[in-house]
């Protein structure tokens, strides 16, 4: 039996909404906030992470972290971007070398910004390795592109990528034509253009025509940890004679599907979870999913635009 759209949304946005919700034998019942020195929450820590932090902390003088029953924060002497970034790097290098957490086996050498420092004009408090972000439950940002065409009769068709089987995450699953995280050094639009060239062989001239159409937000829990995420969404109506081609080895092939075919693959749960949400958002914005044909219309809207109580980028 196929999944409903709401089922697919729930598989991605699966962190509990209420503090009163209890999950038997689950670490989710005992997470505590990771704070900056101004008491701004920048992450959430599970008990397994807290225990590893305590062990690491005990070996370092002065202690880099203040670890209490209700929170963890940087020690007061770690009060700059550079100092926080360096201690996080040392911590993660140690955990990676000692193989403390499986999540770190997917090391990418990509730095992600963690926001919340009002003293820094960019708001960035520190940066950390991408694969470590679920360990700290910090908010991460990505960008997804819907590449589509209109036929002569006005029918919508969307280009869909199949992830390479060699990908460290979600190998062989379906994906948006272009998607990726936003590194510390790039803007959102620069990330779109970069990923479009690298993943789909789209020229700069075509990629620059991508239009920002909003964002989705959700909070997913996996075996690797906690991951609140915001994905900036772009639409690109492509010329009918332009065909995306794999370039950097991350994509196996591309398909061009009409909306019925696209929906069929979503409801059989073949898409990487957050990519399915991006497409569901597209279907809503183009009135293919609407209040008259979808009983969970409002619930879906709420769940793909979840409020996340973490600092975000400031201009």
UniProtKB/TrEMBL annotation:
What the entry lists under Gene3D superfamilies is as follows:
Nucleoside Triphosphate Pyrophosphohydrolase
Which residues are in the Nudix hydrolase domain?
140-281
Any Pfam family from its record, for instance, is DUF4743
User: What name goes with this protein?
Assistant: NUDIX hydrolase domain-like protein
Q: Which UniProt keywords apply?
A: Hydrolase
Question: For this UniProt entry, which residues form the secretion signal?
Answer: none
Q: Which GO terms describe its molecular function?
A: 8-oxo-dGDP phosphatase activity
Q: Which organism was this protein described from? A: Glomus cerebriforme
Answer whether the UniProt record assigns the keyword Hydrolase to this protein: yes
> Which CDD domains does this chain map to?
NUDIX_Tnr3_like
